[in-house]
Each structure stands twice: as C-alpha cells, then as structure tokens.
C-alpha cells in the first residue's frame, strides 16, 4: 500500500476526541494532507449501523450481533473510503479500528481474540494500520477526569469492571502487536500528550 494508515485507540474518557482535534490542527498548520474518519461509522451506511449499535434501547443485543455489526461498519468504511485512499498514497487517520473490537468485544465481552479475527478477516486483509496510537490511561483515572458518564450511551453504562477489562485487553494488544503499537502516556496535560503523538508519528516516518 502506498499510503499510511494510523489508528487511535483508548478507553472511554482518555481525551481521544481532544487529541484528534489537536492532531488535525497540527497537520493542517504544517501543510500535511490527510483524511480523518471514525468507527463505527464514517460512511452513510456505516453511520446507520453505528446508530443501531449505540442506541440505548437495544439492551437485548447479543454480544455476537454487536461484534458483527462493528465488523459490518468496518468493511463498509474500508471498501468505501480507507482502501481507495491508501491506494492513492494518502495518509488516513481513523478514530478506533479493529483493536477496539479486540478489546471491547474480544476481551471485555469475552468473545475471544480468534472470534473477532475471524469475523473481521474479509475486511482486514491488506488493511492493517501502520501505526496504532494507544492513549494509555486507566479507566479510574479517565472517569475521574471526565466527571461521570453519558447516560444515553449503552456502552458507557457498562460499568467500571467492564472498562477495566477493556483496558487489560488493550495492554495485551500493545504487547502482542509491539511493531505497530505506540503507547502514549495520556495522564499528563493535553499539550504533553499531543507532543508525544506528534513525536511517535515522526519517529515512524509517517509525518
Ligand atoms: P463513541 O461515542 O465514538 O466513543 P469514543 O469517543 O470513546 O470513541 O462510541 C464508540 C463506542 O464503540 C466506544 O464505546 C467503543 C465502542 N467500540 C467497540 O466496542 N468495538 C469496536 O469495534 C469499535 C470500533 C468501537
């Protein structure tokens, strides 16, 4: 693939959205062209799938159904937006990707690594990130800083135990995929975290 593919991962409330905004500003200010998108969603069809997954009314959704909806949203985004851009040599940045499925559905919901790998295999081939920025902050620290949960979001209602499992899942992934994972300490000021992100991307020759 000619382009570079960067994904951003982390538990709820680690400041991911703020960091994406700061990175976006940095890239614009430095004249670096990029395409930024998010999961689940990023295309009209994938955004509709996102609405089903995150709808607070869908409490009876099975774990397997949830995992497959994430995979469906992903395959749509990959084929419609990500792959064509990487083939054209563009820099693509995605807010969450396959590692969210490994951490949330595979580890925290207990479906296992292989289940997630298998249902994503069609979409994921040829489309693994060159760099995954993992914002490292424990759920306790993150929730404290965020000051509560958004009651309309089914996933955020799952409780601290669930989020601790997600966090453990990420730490395991960071070890398993050492080559592409950049672990970013997100416990400091937002400017410090931003500088670490820029530094990691420079070190990997992405920007
Ligand atoms: P969003 O509101 O975008 O959260 P955030 O700002 O934390 O990214 O909602 C995305 C939610 O979907 C988030 O709780 C993580 C979850 N998710 C999964 O469980 N599996 C996945 O594969 C993906 C992409 C996201």
What's this model, at a glance?
The chain is of the alpha/beta class and 207 residues long. It contains eight helices and five strands.
Give an overview of the whole structure:
- Helix 2 packs antiparallel against helix 3 (63-87) and helix 3 (63-87) packs antiparallel against helix 4.
- The two termini are 16 Å apart.
- The protein is an alpha/beta fold.
- Helices cover 54% and strands 13% of the residues.
- The chain has a 5-stranded parallel beta sheet with strand order 2-3-1-4-5, with helices on both faces.
- It has a single domain (4-203), classed as Rossmann fold (3-Layer(aba) Sandwich), CATH 3.40.50.
- The chain has helices at 16-29, 44-54, 63-87, 98-108, 113-124, 139-146, 160-176, 190-203, and strands at residues 4-10, 35-38, 91-95, 131-136, 181-185.
- The chain has 8 helices and 5 strands.
- Bound molecules: thymidine-5'-diphosphate.
- Residues 12, 16-17, 39-40, 54, 70, 96, 100-101, 104-105, 155 line the site of thymidine-5'-diphosphate.
- The site of thymidine-5'-diphosphate (TYD) has 13 residues, from helix 1 and helix 4.
* % residues in beta strands: 5-15%
- For the record, the count of structural domains works out to 1
Rg calculated over all Cα atoms: 16 Å
Number of extended strands: 5
Biggest sheet, spatial arrangement of strands: 2-3-1-4-5
Small-molecule binders here are: thymidine-5'-diphosphate
Helix content: 40-55%
Q: Termini distance?
A: 16 Å
Give the overall pLDDT as a whole number.
94
Question: How many helical stretches?
Answer: 8
CATH fold group: Rossmann fold
* Principal-axes shape call: globular
């Amino acid at each position: 693939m000619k382009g570079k593919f960067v994904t951003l991962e982390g538990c709820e409330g680690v400041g991911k959205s703020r960091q994406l905004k700061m990175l976006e500003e940095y890239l614009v200010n430095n004249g670096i062209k990029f395409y930024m998108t998010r999961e689940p969603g990023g295309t009209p069809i994938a955004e509709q799938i996102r609405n089903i997954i995150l709808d607070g009314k869908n409490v009876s959704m099975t774990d397997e159904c949830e995992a497959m909806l994430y995979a469906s949203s992903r395959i749509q985004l990959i084929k419609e937006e990500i792959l064509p851009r990487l083939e054209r040599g563009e820099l693509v940045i995605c807010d969450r990707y396959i590692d969210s499925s490994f951490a949330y559905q595979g580890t925290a919901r207990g479906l296992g690594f292989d289940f997630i790998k298998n249902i994503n295999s069609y979409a994921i081939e040829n489309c693994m990130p060159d760099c995954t920025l993992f914002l490292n902050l424990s759920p306790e620290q993150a929730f404290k800083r965020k000051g509560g949960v958004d009651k309309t979001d089914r996933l955020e209602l799952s409780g601290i135990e669930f989020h601790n499992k997600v966090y453990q899942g990420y730490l395991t992934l960071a070890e398993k995929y050492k080559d592409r994972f950049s672990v970013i300490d997100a416990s400091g000021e937002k400017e410090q975290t931003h500088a670490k992100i820029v530094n990691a991307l420079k070190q990997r020759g992405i920007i």
